[in-house]
Amino acid sequence: MPSHAGVEMSSPRNDYRSKVVNRSISADWSAYSATYDLLSEHNPEYQALLQDFEAFLTTIETPQVIYDIGGGTGNYTEIAARVCPDSEICFVEPDTNMNRSAQSKLAAYKNISYDNRALEDIDATGSADLVICVHALYAMPAQEQRLADLRKLLRPGGRLYLIDIGRYMNVSDWRSYLFASVKKELGLIGALRVFWQGREIAKQNKSILEAQKKGIYWTHTEAEIASLVAQNGFEIVRQQSVYRDHSDLLVCRAIS
Ligand SMILES: C[S@@+](CC[C@H](N)C(=O)[O-])C[C@H]1O[C@@H](n2cnc3c(N)ncnc32)[C@H](O)[C@@H]1O
Predict the structure, then answer these.
(1) 119: Cβ below 6 Å to ligand 1?
(2) Residue 78: CB within 6 Å of ligand 1?
(3) Ligand 1 pocket, mutate which of 93, 133, 169, 207 (most atoms under 8 A from CB)
(4) CATH of 23-254, one of 3.40.50.150, 3.40.50.10260, 3.40.630.30, 3.40.190.10
(5) With a threshold of 0.85, does the pTM exceed it?
């Protein structure tokens, strides 16, 4: 397994925390972690992304070493661990509560190691066959350097499965869309209950929008992310606009 397994073994978490605090307007991932899966489970667009990832895994040779960067509550790692039971998976998530939540969800899988460092604090291994990074790059500092970090994790020819929110989070539009969708599934009372339980989500999404507007979180067009990815050692195999056109999905190959 990658040498940095174990949620409590590395110390840079404090550095990460101070960096987060210094970036005063940003999402509180710990507060978000408790309810993150509640609406994700009821969000057809989030489910469509998970399905795309699972389908993608069946189209490639089984990756031996997989990294999930900014893995949140572990939904992508769960798919990787299930579809690729013999692979070594390194789950990287610097937020303590997100990381705990993922460890609890993934406890049945024995092929996962947990790292609580931020991407920028991880030593490049050049050993990964697949790196997953979903809806996390925009929230990191210095995207060009982070893309270079992702490249360094991969062996030449290895794949990057990247999804990133690029456009402003239209909070009221998402709320209407999700409410209609949950109401269809659970009825009015059920939808009201889910929205009340998940009220932290609306709060965090507002913080994300605020951080985007202040330039603390990265926003980009399809062309801008493609250009930055290509400049950092990747060939783009597939690119599409997803998540109601808020995000870009790029499947890339690391070039030597
Ligand atoms: C919106 S969540 C996405 C979680 C998961 N990938 C998913 O799609 O369900 C973004 C995650 O990125 C993590 N993150 C933020 N900055 C990071 C950094 N510098 N390095 C690694 N992860 C980071 C956050 O802690 C948070 O859990």
Answers:
(1) yes
(2) no
(3) 93
(4) 3.40.50.150
(5) yes
Taking the C-alpha atoms of residue 137 and residue 102, their distance in angstroms, rounded to an integer, is 19
> Tokens 């059920």 appear where?
190
Q: Are 164 and 170 in contact (CB under 8 A)?
A: no
| Tens digit of each residue's pLDDT (9 = 90 or more) over 42-82 | 899 999 999 999 999 999 999 999 999 999 999 999 999 99
Which amino acid, one-letter code, is at 183?
K
Task: Specify the higher pLDDT residue, 32 or 101.
Answer: 101
| Distance (Å) from CA 186 to ligand 1 centroid | 29
Q: How far is the CA of 187 from the centre of ligand 1 (A)?
A: 32
Nearest CA to ligand 1 atom 20: 118
**Is residue 101 helix, strand or coil?**
helix
Looking at residue 17, what is its pLDDT?
46
- Is the alpha carbon torsion for 177, 180, 182, 188 positive or negative? positive
